[in-house]
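Weekly modeling sync, notes
Attendees: S.R. (lead), two postdocs, one rotation student

Agenda item 3: backlog of single-chain predictions. S.R. asked that every request posted to the team notebook include the full sequence so nobody has to chase files. The rotation student volunteered to paste the first one in as an example of the format we agreed on. Action items at the bottom.

Example entry:
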Amino acid sequence: MDNSEAPPPSAMRDRRSDALGSLRVLPDEIISAILENLTTRDVARLACVSSVMYIFCNEEPLWMDLCLRICRGPLQYKGSWKKTTLHLENVPDKYIENSGRPMSFDGFNSLFLYRRLYRCYTTLDGFNFDGGNVERKMDISLGEFRHQYDGKKPVLLLGLTDSWPARSSWTIDQLTAKYGDKSFRISQRSTRKISMEFKDYVSYMNLQHDEDPLYIFDDKFGETVPSLLKDYSVPQLFNEDYFEVLDREQRPPFRWFIVGPERSGASWHIDPALTSAWNTLLCGQKRWALYPPGRVPLGVTVHVNEEDGDVNIDTPSSLQWWLDFYPLLADEDKPIECTQLPGETIFVPSGWWHCVLNLETTIAVTQNFVNSVNFEYVCLDLTPGYHHKGVCRAGFLAIDKTSLDGAQTSCVSDEAEQSYPDLTRKEKRLKIKEHKEESECDKTTNGDSGSHDLWRQEFSYDIEFLVSFLDKDRDHYNSPWSLGNCIGQREMREWLYKLWIGKPGARDLIWKGACLALNAEKWFHCLVAVCNFLNLTSPTADERLPVGTGSNPVYLLPDCVVKIFVEGGLETSMYGLGTELQFYSLLHKVSSPLERFVPEVLASGIVYFEKGSHKILPWNGKGVPKIDNMSTLMSAVREEDEFPFGVWSKNMFELSRANKLSNESANAITGSTKIWPFIVTKRCKGKIFAELRDTLSWEEALNLASFLGEQLQNLHLLPCPPINKCTLPETHHSTEGALANWDGVDTSVKLDYSAETEILTKTLSVKKKNVKASLTTWGDPIPSSLIEKVDDYLPQDFSNFFLTCQDETGWDGVCKPFSWIHADIMDDNVHMESTTAGLDGNSADSSQENSSSVNGCKDGGFRTCWHPGHILDFSNLKCGERILDIIPIYLDIFRGDSSLLKVLLDHYKLPLQMKRSSVTIEEKFGRLSYRAMCYCILNEENILGAIFSMWKELRAAKSWEEVELAVWGVLNDNEAVS
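Predicted structure, as returned to the notebook:
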């Protein structure tokens, strides 16, 4: 309905009731939020329903959200977000251009929509004053910076960039001329990593009228355009960075190239892991607002997960906060603020809240860093738990009234049934103020003054004070790792150990951080108890830090290695050690060639804490240890078995736990105990492969591949122990009864299932039940389009995995392709030994070997050669399909190099599956690539993240079959059959 002939004002009617029907009771912001979750086709249809719905459905901010949600590949802005979205949906140009001029209607008013429209077109000329209170310092020394500002307060630094080429070359015109065709990542409200070519982004900046414009915020610019790194240098004040010891692919994002137009910016946040940051502006003006640690800005909601401590925040856009919230603040509640000018560098200390608004088109570069001042804070933030993470960000607002006498907690809302972003996790939401778009908010002067008073109390951003809020009962190796942590547990442990080796002068500080992040002191006391009991040399101060990247504390002593089992809790640990000891017993009994490539076991047992001291109980895996407080946990164990915690008991335990967790949506964690199994093995001389990966020659890599093929053959030829009926609950002694008691298994086909097949089939079925949720939680780089298709790709009945073979007699039925599976042959579990050889190939003596350099010639032409010597860590042993051992080797050790995989298979010489059966089944079950892909999808670890990181082109894959054949097709080409 065109408004060209509008009736006189007296005749105007309110359209809302008739145009929206039952939806009229919803606030406008709720209607807009609902529309954002619809498809573009549905939004286009709704625009035809009524005049008011037409207004809602043609809002540019709505089409911006729709566009960013469906965008794949580099984005090109077409002058409006609706046109851009329709182009992405492949709507013909003639329909886009001939859609007619926009219609307007009288009789409908929306303060929400008006304010959003105002933000889209407002200018910021009035914001560029600098009445701020951030100090400006010129030519500051490192000593002065550390004494007055580092870890204490922000400061604007002048003169640090005078020699940078970027001071003159980083302009929009020059960058467009040099890098116009280079794609940069965009930071905006999308879970997808969206990019734009620089020339297209500049065109967008000139055309857009967005309330929160797209913002180049690229942490990969150094890889995309390496020459940009030559245009600036890290100021001397910030040269110390403890994250530098990590490899580039392991290091969390730390530097960003930033370009944004007027009205763009970064909303309120605290930098990841409580790192500090410096930000240098090269072009334009930025307005900064900052609050000290623990003081949550007005309008911001902090979400703290009570199980893993993950912290997320809801915050208005930078522009919205300045327009709608800043005017509500009393003078004493206003933030520290300043206007940053070209050439100035602002320092933001650890834990400080900050918000940035670009007053005009800006270009900047920023880096986050960890130094000796904030190192303990970073370790604290990475520590599992709940309270301390919330306290670091929200101060006393994160603490219940029972936890802090005298603290005002009227603004703390504990909504245990809600969650952000995962509805299955308990969460505490810490609200400063519920901002309202309607007119009543204009009447509020500072309705949350009570909550703002909290920060004025004795909250101290001091490490000793913050540590007091740690959950002392948590085993940090056991607790869930926060999804928001900037690095994973594996990288965290490797980081601390690399610092320990690389910075011996800082070991006291590193030890303090390790005690926070790893509970290192607790495990060190256990180590001392083991050494004293076994009359081993007491560990020195330099040997007190656990080594490696695994999930259990491991200690390297001069002649032995001590491993303490803690991962997953007591039951998981007992099954881990029990299975490992069962395997070593079998290995010795059958005199397998593999035995010489597995470290010798010197001792094993259980260390437990009782009556104020640690005690030791030797245990060889046979029988059930008699320790108080242990019997109830072990009630399901059958003492009739020689190895009651052996491999099939372990498989059954993991199946039972997985089924329970699947039904209860709980975490796979057993509560903290004071009982820990341990094992002592002989120490191997040499280095693990992870330390040598980048130094090995191609010949040495080929040698490693052939070694792994031969040892996998030896491993898989070992007799897999038969399952003992007493291992299974009585209801599982018959196949039909077992299947009837478990959900998710197709019982329509009656076959002579073995108990082993039953356990493995059920385990896969249970894992499938939660696979979509797991993949969604992991998220990027796993394509969301594939996550939606995962249930259709995986088998409906996993028994088909074991129906694709026949035995030597030709009998069609369920086969038993089960072998001992290491399941964790990765770069830290392959040990390499060295020999020194001359350039003529002859070996050198040991003195020459010790003086030579790794893979380099020195003094007479000798070089160190590395060859594989041992396979380590058999605690993840299981019985299963042989292909399970190929997956970690191919992805982690070979990094997807198919030529190395072919060498391994040539030396392996065993079939990865038996001959195909004449039983009629789908063809895909006979493809090794399909089976491997299914196991990758169902793995508890984020294997898919590694796959889509190595094969980046597969992020645009249309189907799982495409991914399967690209990654695992080599198995089909080299399939070994009996």
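Discussion: group reviewed the output briefly. The chain has five domains: 9-109, 136-456, 490-682, 686-717+818-895, 737-817+913-973.
Action items: rotation student to repeat for the remaining queue; S.R. to check formatting next week.
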